[in-house]
# Entry
Amino acid sequence: MLLADKVAIVTGAGSGIGAASAIRLAEEGATVLVADICRHKAEQTLSEITPREGVARTCQVLC
# Structure
């Protein structure tokens, strides 16, 4: 695991490149903070990470 013991904060992680990045970082062992303005979308990305044994949490970004 290339990123074991590292933390990644991914903004815009609810969809697109942000979601793909969050998933890939988790696959490499990083603990990921999945941040998006839409909490529901962030939780969708989270649901794709956790079954793969990744460690992640969500955060809604407020403007």
The helical segments are 16-27, 39-49. The CA atoms of residues 35 and 62 lie 10 Å apart.
